[in-house]
Amino acid sequence: MTNTDLASCPTECFQSDVLAGLSQPQKRVPSKYFYDAAGSQLFDAITRLPEYYPTRTELGILRANAVAMAERCGPHCLLIELGAGSLNKVRWLLDRLDHPAAYVPVDVSEDYLVEAAAALVDDYPALNVIPLAADFTRRFQLPQLPAARRVVFFPGSTIGNFDPRQADLLLRRIARLVGLGGGCLLGIDLQKDTSVLEQAYNDSAGVTAAFNRNLLVRINRELGADFDPAAFRHCAFYNRKLSRIEMHLVSEIAQRVHLGRYVFDFRAGESIHTENSYKYDIGEFAGRAAACGIRFDNSWTDPRENFAVLWLTAN
Ligand code: AVJ
Asked: Which residue has the CA at smallest separation from atom 5 of ligand 1?
């Protein structure tokens, strides 16, 4: 039943994105390519790390405020989750929603999505689950969906992976997707102490490092490159000026990498920029959202104000 819209973004997209990214003066690869099956599993492991506070903090916020959130969603809503992953967070909401018309989890990792959707259907037999394998950063086709008030559920501070211009485009797309009067429950990670942030992306078990390096493993496997992942060091730091965690893979040595007929040279210490994770101020974010046609209505946070879940409505 999965709409294989990913077929419109097959290997050629991955290949051309990687080739283009590695050809920049600051080499880079878009962070969405972390999430092959192995990467999705590694990310799941990250969410359970003691240092990685966002997932459990957001879950706590969802758990504590699920009734109020479900009330905002309203009866018979059509819930669309972007970057749905393991489909665990939505359960708190589903348990409180008043007869949702359908639940549409959207994720790039098709195998992972299908598996997670099957597990969800087991636990929610009455729920109409319509999984959609698609890259929501591109224009994607929605399958035939029941007519209902639409609510986008976009947790995890996934929006933090987009630079401000892309994030604005995404907010505009969400506003259009839900339509006038539609809503959006959005998780954002908040600005805080550098040490807390940097520990979250430099865990002592090295899972984040493995997650980062898996990108090279995937490029080798799917694009036939000859990266030596062990020759790249995981590096993550908070760029306070730009309010973002940056992740890089730093070449330990001068080396040459082949990708098809292309050759990429690395100086010792040269990096591939693999991810940005923006950290926000609620008021600033609300202002930007308003400019994108989606108005801030309410926010819920944890007592330490590490993370926030926002309720926005399209106007
Ligand atoms: C999935 C985007 C929320 O930015 O914190 C976790 C991804 N990268 N550790 C984040 C991630 C490294 C994560 N998001």
From this structure: 277
Q: What is the pTM of this model?
A: 0.93
Q: Is 86 in the pocket of ligand 1 (CB under 6 A)?
A: no
Would you state the pLDDT for residue 236? Answer: 98
CA distances for 108 relative to 49, 279, 305, angstroms: 24, 23, 30
Structural domain contains residue 76:
yes
> Is pLDDT above 90 for 4?
no
> Best substitution site from 43, 108, 188, 248 to test ligand 1's pocket, by max atoms within 8 Å of Cβ?
43
> CB-based burial of residue 302 (10 Å sphere; 0-12 exposed, 13-18 middle, 19+ buried)?
middle
Average pLDDT over residues 209-225: 98
Residue 161 alpha carbon to ligand 1 centre in Å: 8
In the chain, how many domains are there? 1
The token duo for 131 is: 């999984």
pLDDT at 206 over 70: yes
Q: How far is the CA of 126 from the centre of ligand 1 (A)?
A: 32
Q: Which amino acid is at 138?
A: R
Query: What would you measure as the largest C-alpha separation in the chain, in angstroms?
Result: 59
88: domain range?
1-224+278-315
Question: 130-147 pLDDT, tens per residue?
Answer: 999 998 888 888 889 999
CATH number at residue 167: 3.40.50.150
